[in-house]
Fold this protein.
Amino acid sequence: MRERDPCVYIMASKRLGTLYVGVTSNLIGRVMQHRDGTFEGFTKRYGIKRLVWYDVADTMEAVIAREKTIKKWPCDWKCNLIERRNPEWHDLAVGLGLDPLV
């Protein structure tokens, strides 16, 4: 993965009970912001720090459209999407070079 790739991603809370769907062109940087609690809001309030799914596309328009679609899905559909690639719900950020969560 290059440093700048448009992608849609799903983050989960530690207890895997709360999900967040977002888009970015800098996945590693954005995950670091979620982990650090850089911004006030939903992900900071619910402790959402674990990257559990992401998909890269050619354009921001494509990932924004995919994000809008996924956000409308019921939670069990999102869980099924995650579990097809990441059945154990591992933090995929570790595979991108970030330290494991403690």
